[in-house]
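Table S2 (continued). Query chain:
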Amino acid sequence: MTETQEFDKVLVANRGEIAVRVMRACEELGIDTVAVYSEADKHGGHVRYADEAYNVGPARAADSYLDQDAIVDAARQAGADAIHPGYGFLAENADFAAKVGDAEGITWIGPDGDAMESLGEKTKARTIMQEADVPIVPGTNDPVTEVEAVTDFGDEHGYPVAIKAEGGGGGRGMKVVKSADEAADQLDSAKREGEAYFSNDSVYLERYLENPRHIEVQIVADHHGNVRHLGERDCSLQRRHQKVIEEGPSPALSDELREQIGEAARRGVRAADYTNAGTVEFLVEEDTDRADGELLGPDTNFYFLEVNTRIQVEHTVTEELTGIDIVKEQLRVAMGEEIGFSQDDVELEGHAIEFRINAENAADDFAPANEGSLDTYDPPGGIGVRLDDALRQGDDLVTDYDSMIAKLIVHGSDREECIARSRRALAEYDIEGVVTIVPFHRLMLTDEQFVAGKHTTKYLDEEADRSKFTEAQERWGTGDADLGGDADAGEESTEREFTVEVNGKRFDVSLEERGAPAIPTPNGGDSGSGSGRMERPDVAQADDDDDEVVIEGDGEAIAAEMQGTILSVDVSEGDEVAAGDVVCVLEAMKMENDVVADKGGVVDQVLVGEGDSVDMGDVLVVLE
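Corresponding output:
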């Protein structure tokens, strides 16, 4: 597409802080905004912020935010010119991108479905990158059956070697061979696990990176052949493959290595015929023997990992470094405009760090809060401090989807100033009513490994002193609100529904009143379920009783800690499991997460299957 167009109205197919972030960019460009919301989010901040809002279904994500037809119908009714997916939910769904692209008069703000599909499949993406001379992790393309293939690979590429099941995920079916002596046993073990977990004993080989850093490059590409990279972000501080602190530029890379990685990202994206914003992710081998202040030089190995075909949670870091509004660039590219800056115009100024302010308890293995309200919410301010959020003081925490409350982004003239400013900002951040990981963030800013910039993706899970997490929580943390003492508890809540007309436009309005008796209505009161906003008509009304999960007996319930998709179920009814055993693998935000049993027992109920969409708090497995 080379013809330009103007957007008058954009629907944001997401919720929370990212929806508000996109709406702010739209407002600055003079574009009206449309929110969609589930029943759980009817009082959400993104609903308050938007010019219009439409109810697209019940709380369950599969019936609302993942309902493709409902989203497109809402866009049609609102008269929206385009749909921005944000991140998560449908943001990387190639079928949805194609559906929007085929809808008359509606533009998809993102890469087209073909590019999304080709870069979303690992084998296709590896092929594209390899042909573009982008380094990929050395590995085999054909199944390995003989031990000699493992030892020959180890001799050529070095040990350790990873043997991976073709159908594997979440660490299942992967074995690490540290020397030739282990090759035979580990090959047999990997094949057995592949057959047991995935009914496929085919395995392949990859070089195993023992100490990787996670480096990602922000790119923007338009429909006129221009591709720009906006520098890198270091996302190496992770727990269970989930990023918790992101920063840029990386404290570990030399300028020469930084330029090599950035140019590799540009080559790969151009070869894929990719447009709009995206992120090319790499693994960079850390030198564990490097001295403090020593940087990884141009001879350091780095390898393509994957492409995220959407805006990233941590895009804010790059915006602070470059002064470029990435969401506005997404909108302009989707309207057919040419990127207005050259690669040489891109300069990284100072240092920025993003802290994910999640409602989680780091001292309890980052367990998410399942309820609460922001009794006190007083975020920090001052020079170099940015808050991306959608919640306000007094809001209830909606835990159906994820645990994020806000993102705190701090910018300084260099990393030293940025860390000092971050300590100040986190100390100012006053949140009462829900547990958060603010104490964990404050701890990390005193952690020798993090401050030295020598941490890897394995640091939190394998090396950090977890007892310090507890000490930080006790020193700086707050607990959940005492819900039992809520004066409103047990009060009757009545929704009163009205039809009003404003400037000739009809609205169904629902007002909620606590402590008031129900008002009988002749027609049963079924005039709508709105929240003071326009609603999509004829929304399917889910009967909660039909989908209610029945937990038999007094078993131990294992629940989802986040919204996502079940990749595999690793237990069956009647199986014995021990504490720490994996019961299923959950994919969220392209990260695979093992769901483990906290206690041992016998599997009494398995309530999910492969491919099921689940929300935070959904019961997956019950033990007796």
